[in-house]
Specification:
By secondary structure, this protein is mostly helical. It folds into two domains: about 160 residues, no CATH class; about 140 residues, no CATH class. The protein is about 50% helix and about 0% strand.
Length: about 400
């Protein structure tokens, strides 16, 4: 798709800017009390400088999207139902979200890595809040994000903030990333380039901190929490796909990482949000507890998990319940020894034997799986669970 001429692009960005600082800000002021205290001119500047405030604005949009329906229309004034549909301004909702997230990230990287006195772009920084129309400065700033930069003459070495932004830019797309932006600023450009699109799998602040602490061996993401998305409020949610049929060992490949050494978090972690799974677990359904349960699943190695699924023909949701309840019963050290990377599979074999005696299988209810696991490990804990380090 060809890029519009510079003049058309500038007009497009100006229209987006005026809409954000006008009608959008007006609606948000009724949902986010802090905005009422800010002058209308320049409010967008203040929001883009504050990730916490920007996140509250996105949350307000997701919570009450009906208030914004009149603004989400195409050039024929017909309401759009897809986030990638072109709006009357000439850009899609996805485009605008990405532009806003990138602008917020660029400002944070500049503030935290370069100091306020060094702009990311050559030339003196425009005094945005003192021009005749603060919107004009932001129009130019946002317009730079959409330009190719081919005609820009670089007159100085790139700053730390600019280098990190260039590494991140392609992956700054979603509103759920805004709370992570301050933590993003602590990562190295080398690590971001190494991860590539996999950086989008790390959706919790603690995940980003673990990345920073282990840059040589990036840990697997501990969570794929249901991070609400602006895009998701336009179209109705899609129904969950049913478990695949039991068509031999190949059916299991989709549940494990390419090297078969761990569970695929994008398959198993979302199951922790399934009401049927939550109903049989004793852990409260809070964000912190869900993150904790995701970490438990991240400890499970491919070999023991595959053995349980093959020998007992367990579904992914059944395996999730079994693992979480087992951890609850025998504790972290014994659980890691039994089901983690160091597992000898002997312990797993005992679980399989008891499961067969119990009649555990693909037709068992999740409640049956939970009850079986609690009874099993109540008996196993003292006499069969391997001691830590044994």
């Amino acid at each position: 798709m060809s890029r519009p001429p510079v003049s058309s692009r500038t007009q497009m960005i100006r229209r987006i800017n005026l809409t954000l600082e006008g009608p959008v800000a007006e609606v948000l002021s009724h949902l986010v009390p802090e905005l009422k205290k800010l002058p209308r001119r320049g409010v967008l500047e203040r929001v883009l400088d504050d990730p916490e405030l920007l996140d509250r604005c996105f949350r307000a949009f997701r919570t009450d999207p009906e208030r914004f329906r009149a603004l989400l229309v195409d050039r024929h004034n017909v309401p759009v139902t897809q986030a990638d549909a072109v709006l009357s301004c000439g850009r899609s909702l996805d485009d605008i979200v990405a532009m806003v997230v990138r602008t917020c990230a660029k400002r944070q990287f500049r503030r935290r890595l370069d100091g306020m006195s060094r702009p990311l772009r050559p030339g003196p920084p425009p005094p945005l809040l003192h021009r005749s129309g603060a919107a004009e400065g932001l129009v130019k700033r946002l317009g730079q994000l959409l330009s190719s930069g081919r005609n820009r003459e670089v007159k100085r070495p790139r700053s730390r903030g600019e280098i990190l932004y260039d590494a991140f830019k392609e992956y700054l797309r979603h509103d759920w990333q805004v709370p992570l932006v301050p933590e993003y600023s602590t990562l190295s450009p080398q690590l971001v380039r190494q991860l590539g699109s996999r950086i989008l799998d790390y959706r919790a602040i603690e995940d980003i901190r673990r990345l920073r602490e282990n840059p040589q061996e990036p840990p697997p993401p501990s969570t794929l929490l249901e991070t609400g998305s602006v895009s998701s409020v336009l179209a109705p949610p899609q129904p969950a796909s049913p478990p695949p049929p039991a068509d031999g060992d190949n059916r299991l490949l989709r549940y494990f990482s390419p090297d078969q050494k761990r569970l695929r978090s994008e398959v198993f972690a979302p199951l922790l949000l399934d009401p049927a799974v939550r109903a049989v677990l004793s852990t409260p359904a809070t964000a912190e507890q869900t993150l904790h349960l995701n970490r438990i699943l991240a400890e499970v190695a491919g070999r023991p998990a595959r053995m349980l699924m093959e020998e007992l023909n367990l579904r992914p949701d059944q395996l999730t319940v079994l693992m979480v309840v087992a951890h609850e019963r025998i504790g972290n050290d014994a659980f890691t020894h039994a089901f983690g990377a160091r597992s000898t599979l002997d312990y797993v074999g005992k679980v399989v034997e008891r499961g067969r005696s119990f009649g555990l299988g693909p037709d068992s209810s999740l409640a049956d799986v939970a009850n079986f696991t609690r009874r099993l490990f109540a008996a196993f804990r003292d006499k069969s669970a391997p001691p830590p380090g044994h």
